Amino acid sequence: MSQHTHPTYDVAIVGAGAAGLMAAIWAARGGAKVVLLDGQSKAGGKILISGGGRCNVLPIESCDPVESSFHTSGSRNVLKRFFKTWRLPEIQDFVRWELDVPLVEEDDNKLFPESGKARDVRDGLVREAEQCGATITYDWRVAAIDKPTPKTESDCFVLHAEDERQIVAKKVILATGGESVPSTGSDGFGYRLAKVLGHKSVPTFPALAPLTTNDSDLTDLAGLSLPVSWRAVVSGKEVASGERSFLFTHKGFSGPAVLDASHYAIRDNAEILIAWEGNTRQDWIDFLQSRARRNVSKTVADVLPNRLAALLVKRSGVRGEMRCGNLTRSTFDALLDQLCDFRLPISGHRGFAVAEVTGGGVTLESIDPSTLESRKTPGLYLCGEILDVFGDIGGFNFQWAFISGRLAGECAAKVE
Ligand SMILES: Cc1cc2nc3c(=O)[nH]c(=O)nc-3n(C[C@H](O)[C@H](O)[C@H](O)COP(=O)(O)OP(=O)(O)OC[C@H]3O[C@@H](n4cnc5c(N)ncnc54)[C@H](O)[C@@H]3O)c2cc1C
C-alpha cells in the first residue's frame, strides 16, 4: 500500500446537504473514520431555505404505492427497493428522537418541525453527525477526484480541493445535490465529477418549478390561491394528475399543484388542464342545472372566487346575465371547458434559479441498487438529488435524501 502524507479517512463524503449529513451519521455509526466536505461555509444551505424556512421535513403518510410520489426515468422496481430499506415511520422517529426535532402535522400530508424552524433540522443532523464522530470541513470544494488505480499502486481515492489541499479516503460518497438554487452550493458540478468517474446521466431539467405566462388577465389575479385538480396531457393522452392548491403569481402560476405538474410541462411539453376547486364536469352540470333560474355569473361565483369566475365566464363567450337553464349545449360545453378543463397558457418556467429540485441526473443503472455503490467506480457511492430521482412537493425530497444517504453511509462503512 502506498503511503500518503495527506489526511486519510475511511470514508470521505462530498456535500453536506441532507443526503451527505445522513450518510455521515450512518457511516460513522458503522465505525468508519469519516470526513464530510462542503464547498460552502455552512452545512445544509438548502435545508435552511426549505418549506419557506420552516422545512417540510417528511410526509405524514406514504402514498400507495410508495414510489408513486417519486419520479425517475430508471426502473421503478429499483426505486421500490430503496423505500423498503427505511420505512417512513422509522425515519419520522429518527428525526423526532435521534435528531431531537419534535414534529407537527399540517394539512396536505406534511410534517414540519414544531418550532417552525428549518434550522432545527439542519442543526440536528450536524449535531448527530459530529456526535457520531464525523469531521465536517467547510469551504472545502472538491475540484477533482482521483480513483484508486493499479498504475499509481494506490488503493485509495484522492480528493483535490480547488487550491493545493488533498484528502485521501478508502471510499467516497458523492452527495453533491442537483443544480437548482445554485447559490446554496449545489450548482451541478457534481455531475461533472460523476461523469469523469464513468457515470452516465440523463439530461437534467428544473422540476417543482413555477411556470410563467404572457396572459396578463391571469397575472392580474396574482395572490389568488384555490384548490384545483390538474391533469398533464401529452398528445391527447393523460400522463399524470393530482389534486392540490394552485396560486396565481405576477409571473404566472405556482403552488403545490403547479410545482407537482411542472416537470410534465417542462420536460414533456405537456398541456396542463385545470379543474378549478377540483369540480368535475358532472359536478358543474348538476350544480348549474339545479340553479336553472339563476344567472350564470352569480352561479359560477357561488363556487369560485369572484374575479376568477368573471374571467372564466367571459372567456367562455357565455353572456353572464343568461339564466343557467337557458344555456345551449355548445355554450354549456364552452363554459365547462373553462371551469374544469382550463388549458394553462404556459410561456415557460422560472428555471433552476428557483426550481425546488433537479430532475434527471446520474442514472440508477450506474449504481448497485442494494448498496448505492457505483458499478463504474468501485468504492464510490452516490446518494440524494445527484441521482435520477426526485419527489413531489410534501417532504418527499428529504425522504429520498435521508433514505439514500443512510444506505450509502451504511454500505460505505462496511469493511470487505
Ligand atoms: C426553495 C426550496 C425549498 C425546498 N423545500 C423542500 C421541502 O420543504 N421539503 C423537501 O422534502 N424538499 C424540499 N426541497 C428540496 C430539498 O431541499 C432537496 O431535494 C434536498 O436538499 C437535496 O439534498 P442533497 O443532500 O441531495 O443535496 P443538497 O441539499 O443540494 O446538498 C448538496 C451539498 O453539496 C455541496 N457541494 C456541491 N458540490 C460540491 C463540491 N464540488 N465540493 C464540495 N461540496 C459540494 C453543496 O454546497 C451542498 O451543501 C426544497 C428545495 C428548494 C430549493
Please write out the topology:
Elements: E1 8-14, H1 18-29, E2 34-37, H2 45-49, E3 58-59, E4 70-71, H3 76-85, H4 88-98, E5 103-106, E6 110-113, H5 118-131, E7 135-137, E8 142-146, E9 157-161, E10 166-174, H6 189-196, E11 201-207, E12 211-212, H7 216-219, E13 225-234, E14 237-248, E15 252-254, H8 256-268, E16 271-276, H9 281-290, H10 296-301, H11 306-316, H12 329-340, E17 342-343, E18 348-349, E19 357-362, E20 380-382, E21 390-391, H13 396-413
Parallel strand pairs: 1-2, 1-10, 2-7, 10-20
Antiparallel strand pairs: 3-6, 4-21, 5-6, 8-9, 9-10, 11-19, 12-15, 12-18, 13-14, 13-16, 14-15, 16-17
Helix pairs in contact: 1-5, 1-13, 11-12
Question: If you had to describe this structure to a student in words, what would you say it looks like?
Answer:
This protein has two domains: 8-204 and 361-413, 3-Layer(bba) Sandwich (FAD/NAD(P)-binding domain); 211-349, Helicase, Ruva Protein, domain 3. It is 32% helix and 24% strand. It is built from 13 helices and 21 strands. A hairpin with a 3-residue loop joins strand 14 (237-248) and strand 15. Helix 1 runs parallel beside helix 5, helix 1 (18-29) packs parallel to helix 13 and helix 11 packs across helix 12 (329-340). The two termini are 16 Å apart. It binds flavin-adenine dinucleotide. Flavin-adenine dinucleotide binds at residues 14-20, 37-40, 45-47, 49-51, 55-56, 141-142, 175-177, 180-181, 184-186, 189-190, 356-357, 384-385, 395-398, 401.
